[in-house]
Amino acid sequence: MKTTVTLIGLMFSLLTISSAKSDVIISGIVQKVLSGDQMIITHPELGQHAIRLAQIDAPELALSACKAQPWADVSQKALSQQLLGMSVQASCLERLDSEGFAVCQVVVDGENINQWMLSQGHAWFDRSLGNNIWLQQLEQEAKRKRQGLWGNAASAIPPWQQRAQCSGNRR
User: How many helices (H) and strands (E) does the chain have?
Assistant: First the structure.
């Protein structure tokens, strides 16, 4: 049942992103997890790729003007435990984000990591690439269960608000 739900969710997520632009597939080994939604993967022949998980936004680590958000280190650690050293496949938009990262859905062992981060309460659903009912439901369910950062929802400030307050930078 879990596999079916994951596959259906992956199809919905990829359809939403695919409608924005064509996908580029990048595969490789996760060498470094930079934050709860950013990583570096290495392909043996194509080199390193900076990846940002599409449609999620994890709490910000310390920025030059601001301290780290609550749950930022836990989010980064959760992503690292799931992916570090693992072979992944990333389905990415053709364009890069403002920081030069490829914006991607990442799958490891058949599981969509973007969805997993939402379902575990390690990130917010980022609506900047369009509305996705499946991802909204994953976030709402994590909130209802008070999972992850939603365990203390009063201190849960969306990362895009944190970035705007700190530097005026929005993804």
Answer: 5, 8
